[in-house]
Amino acid sequence: GNIVGVATAIVAGGPGAMFWMWLAALFGMATKFSEGLLAVKYRSVDKKTGHVLGGPFYYIERGMGMKWRWLAKLFAFFGMCVGLFGIGTFTQVNSISSAITGFFDPEKNATVSILGMDYSIFTVIGSIVLAVLVGLVVIGGLKRIAKVSERVIPAMVVLYVGLSVLLIVTNLDKIPGAFVTIFESAFGLQAAAGGMLGAIIIAMQKGIARGIFSNEAGLGSAPIAAAAAQTKEPVRQGLVSMTGTFLDTIVVCSMTGLALVMTGAYQIPGLEGAAVTTAAFQAGLPGEVVSFVLMACLVLFGFTTILGWDYYGERCLEYFSNGSMKAVKTYRWLYIAAVFIGPYMTVAAVWTIADIFNGLMALPNMIALIALSGVVVKETKDYFARLAAAGNEDEMAPHLPGDNWDIPPIDPLDDRLGAAN
C-alpha cells in the first residue's frame, strides 16, 4: 500500500490523488480511533482455546445487540473475501512478483509460455517460492519464518524511510513544485476546462481508495488485532490505533508520493505498479543497491501482509462458520492457491478486485461505528476525566467494573499477526 498503492493511485489519478489520500487519512484517524476503542471494550476470551476474540463481529454483537448478528456475519464473509481475493493475496503477490522481475529481468528476456501467455522465468520462480513459504507457515506451522520476518521488518521500514528522506533531501529544490503540482491536480486545474470535474473525481477515487488500502482505516481489520492489546483502557488503544494511520499515510505514503512527483516517474509510459516506484528511486538515487533495497522491502512487506491477512481471514471464517475448523483448513489451501495465482493477473485486475471487496468489507463496519459513536464519546469523556483527576495514567481510577479486561498474552499461534503488525 505504501509503495505500490501510492504509485497506482498517482499513475491512474494524477498527483492530485495524494491530496485526497491525506484527506482520507484525516478522517481515517477518527475511524481508527473508534475501531481500536470498541475492539478493546467489547473483546472477550474463548474459554476453550484462550484466543482473544475481538473486532467488528463482537462490537456489533455485544454493542448493537444479537438482533444485529446478521450484520456481523456479513462483515465476516466480506472480511474473508478481502483476505482471499483482495489485500491478503492478489495485490501483495502481484506487487512482489513485479518487483522481483523488474530487478532481475526488466526486459523479460527469459520467458516461459503458460496458457498461451509469456511470463518471465523470475515471475514463475517467485510465485512458486512465495506459495511454498506461505504454505509452510499456514499449513506446516513453521512459525519461525514469520518470527524472522517480524524481526527483519522494523529494520526494513527504517531503511525504506531513510532512503525516502535521502531522496527528498537531495532534491529539496523540487519540493515546492511537487506540492503545487499535487494541489493543482487535486482540483483539476491541470485538466482542460471540460475535463476538470472528471479529473477531480478520478483523483479523489484513486487517492481515497489507496489511502484506505495502506492504513485500513474503516475496513475493520485492524480491530481484530487491536483486541489483543495488553491494555485495560479502550481509549488508550484507540489513541495508539489512530497514530498508526498518521504515520502510515501522512508520513510514509507522502514520502513515496513526493518521490514519484519530484522525479516525474509516474509519467513514464508503459510503467505500472512496483516499476513506477522503482523508477522514481533510480532517478532520485541512482545505483543498483537502491533498487535491490526497494525490492527487498517490497518482498518482505508483502510477505508479512500475506501472513497477517491469513490470520484475519481465518478469524472471520471462524466467526462466519461458527468455529468450523474444517472450513478453516479448506480456506488455508484456497489461500495458498490464491498466492500462487496472483502473479499471473494484470495490475489493473488485482487492484479493481481489491477495491470492490474493501468497499464491501467497510460497509457493515462503518454502520457499526456510526451506531456505536455514542459509546465512543462516552468512553472518551470518561477516560480523559479520570486522567485529568489523576494527573497521570498510572494513578487513574480503574475503568467501570463489570468489563472483561483480563486478557492473556497473544497466543503464539499468531506470529502471523505479529509479523503483520
Explained architecture:
The model is unreliable at 401-405, 408-413 and 416-421 (pLDDT under 50). With 421 residues, the protein is mainly α. The protein is globular and about 60 Å long. The chain has helices at 4-13, 17-41, 56-64, 69-85, 90-104, 121-138, 143-169, 175-186, 196-215, 222-226, 234-263, 274-284, 288-320, 325-341, 347-371, 373-390, 415-420; strands at 44-45, 52-53, 111-114, 117-120.
**What is the chains' assembly state?**
single chain
| H and E order | HHEEHHHEEHHHHHHHHHHHH
Give the overall shape: globular
Q: Largest sheet at a glance?
A: 2 strands, antiparallel
Strand tally: 4
**Average pLDDT reading:** 83
| Alpha-carbon distance between the two ends | 14 Å
Q: What is the beta-strand fraction?
A: under 5%
* Unreliable residue stretches: 401-405, 408-413, 416-421
The value of Rg in angstroms is 22 Å
- Compute the number of helices: 17
**Strands of the biggest beta sheet: in what spatial order?**
1-2
Derived from helix and strand composition plus strand pairing, the structural class reads mainly alpha
Helix content: over 70%
Attribute tags:
421 residues; mainly alpha; two-stranded antiparallel ribbon; 17 helices; 3% strand; disordered C terminus
